[in-house]
Amino acid sequence: MVTLCDVLYQFYGAALVTPLRKPGRKPAPRYQKTIEFRDPEGRFRVATRKDFVGRRRQLQNCLRAFKLDDKLGVLIHGMGGLGKSTIASRLWERLSEYEKVFWWRQIDNSNFVEKLADKLRDADLRFALKDNRNELKYRLRDLFENLIEAGEKPFLFLFDDFEWNLEPREGGYVLKPEAAEVLNALVFAIREVGAREKIIITCRYEFQSDLLSEFWVQGLDAFRKADLEKKLKRLENFNSGKIDEKLIERALKLADGNARLLEWLDKDVFGCEDIEGKLNKLESSSEDWQGKIIWDKLYKQVDEKIARVLSHCLVFEIPVPMSALEVVCESISGYKEKLNQAVDLGLIEVSSEVEESERVYRVSRILPHIISSIKLPEVPEVYSLYEKGSEKLFELWGTTDNINEEKWREIFRFKFANKENPERFREGFYKMLSVQYNKEADEAYEFELRQSKTELPENSLFVQLEEYLCQGEWRKADEETAFIFFEVMALENIDRDKMYYQTPSQILREIDQLWVKYSDGKFGFSVQKDIYQSLGGTRKYDEEIWEAFCNKVGWQQGGKCLHYDELTFNRETHYTGHLPMGTIGFGGRVWLRTRFYTVLLE
Predict the structure, then answer these.
(1) I want to staple 200 with a disulfide (CB 3.0 to 4.6 A). Which of 158, 162, 179, 382 is the partner?
(2) What is the pTM for the complete model shown?
(3) CB 231 within 8 Å of CB 250
(4) Residue at 84 is within a domain
């Protein structure tokens, strides 16, 4: 009987299966169980590939470090729940050119050797590795040398949750003797023979050891902005549309971008019947969840000075350069050392920039829930911190090149937070003017001004304007006029595009009367309105009429619109109606001002 195999053999003219053993044939890759990142109950301790979001820069930094000859590996450190093990698992998957060896939590000479020996196919190599007559570092040196000669894959050693191998000392953490022996031996052996072996360590703390000079140290921060949005889209209850928005806001505030807390809140809080009751309990006490973030042992490391430093740093809501943190902590003796210590302990989050000078830092809002001594300072002390921080942030970020609205908001939030300074809103306005035509600065100032509108003075809007006009300080008067418009916009909740014709007419009259009075009728809105209407101007914008008006009042010369600094801030100018102009100069819309003139003083 002819079988299918006979037919196929005749068709192909060769054996269907090659010999099992053939010179030069590479063995099929061994099946690897993906059990390493599971807890003792078999549950995954890391995000799956499908659920993994963000951390692109951190991954790139670590992968780049593996290509550097002067780095033997990476230390990924940060507060619990920020994704250290998840990043390690992604590296684990990508580095396919390595033979991998994994340890979770505690290591010592014995279990290290046993697990590594299990990865060796050669019985002689296994025997030599287990021979205790030689120190571990020499056994590893000989092993790596033999593997190089045999052309075997180099090993990738991954030590996960490495904080179990540390002990506290002098406000930080150091290696326990058993772990120090293993890590020292590994580094010695790799360096001694120029082996290609690499090491990944995940740990809550950046521990104190000379060995870290051999590692790329990668700090972590919480999810923010786009990464946070991506994470929330993968959480069933957060993304269900069934949870009240106010409850979601409270949960997000509590989690402060911590991935582990977000996942726990999504499942255990939003999945229960009494969501609000559960949230109330969690907000009032961290007993149920603090262990997910911080070990009890860490509390002993947080002395009074570290608590004060972290409390002062809470004034910043967004990540800022280290120099900004230093400014608000400079009244605390030894503050630089304490700031570095807080970073090492994972109490201050670190951004992903490669260059240390470009990194930004932030104290998690989770900490005050867990450690009662860490809290925002009380008034009046906090006001001085806001004042110092405001000046420093403006020094760092207050430039025309800064088009980041979030940074501008933080500058103005700081400026407005010092309630002991009655001039804070005007001073903030002048900071905005210093980078004129910066849209992000304008919008940030407007946003923060609206947030503080209940603190704006309503009964003294024109006092400073009259003083400037009386003294003949025409530029300052023009800028003050623009400032009044911003104040009224916030107080009356007027949309910025409508401020010219929704500002109450009484306020317009007050401003106009002061300008006309102190300029002897040369300047003022009513003066400009008469010129505009004499040229045929109406509510409808007409480009030809508007250009004629600008030429008439001296805002345009030779077909070119003048920059604000090119205006003539002097009553002796031959241009009638030359001022005020600031409401256009500071982000105004020209076509809206045409309406303004036609309704003014009617």
Answers:
(1) 158
(2) 0.84
(3) no
(4) yes
